Every structure is written in C-alpha cells, then in structure tokens.
Fold this protein.
Amino acid sequence: MAATKTLIAVVLATLTIGTPARGAEIMTVGDLQEFCTASDDGSKSACRFFIFGVAQGLCLAAGTLGDKTHYCIPDDLSAAAMELAVKLAIGQDLMVFPKDRNLEASGFVGAALIKAFPCAKRKP
C-alpha cells in the first residue's frame, strides 16, 4: 500500500512539474502538506521526492538559462534540508493564508526554495 502511494505521488509529481494540467488534478500545497505530515514511510518519501524533483527541475532550468541570480541552492544541500525548508514555509504560509492550500505545489516549492536559499549578492 505504501509503495503504491509513493508511486502515485511520484507520477503526480512528474505530471505536474513543467507541464500544464489537462484534465488531471495537480498536486496542491494542501496535498503536499498531507504527504509531508503523514506518518507512513511512503508518504514521507513522496514528500521528499516531490520537493527534490522540483529543486532538480529548477536547477536544470537555471543552468540551461545561465541564471545565477535567482536560483542558487547549494550543491551540497541535502534532500532532508530542502524538505525541512519547504515544510516550514508551508506551515508558516498556511497559518496566515489558509486558502493557499489550493495553490499548485510545484510553484510554491520553487518559491520557498528561492526564498530559503537566496543567491549571494555580487559586489560591484
């Protein structure tokens, strides 16, 4: 059962990252929060892999575009550290803006990572 949930989460994550949803439901911030706060290992893995997948997608896009000013997650940052940063951002955001549960999770994760790990400002 846990393996099935993980597989479903990974498939949903793959479908929602970088492609518009057409008739399929997207992963929302509320969905991701449920995965991230569940007690079973399958849900916990789905949470971590979704966040890591978004981070990898953003790294790939930033590298392709040569963008070193918006997305600068340290290369040695662990998936657990990324997960913690996103979980904290979800908790803080939803306490103030509960309707944000309906936002698309991939965009929220990207914004949370950019905010948590800002690029160092270059000195002139």
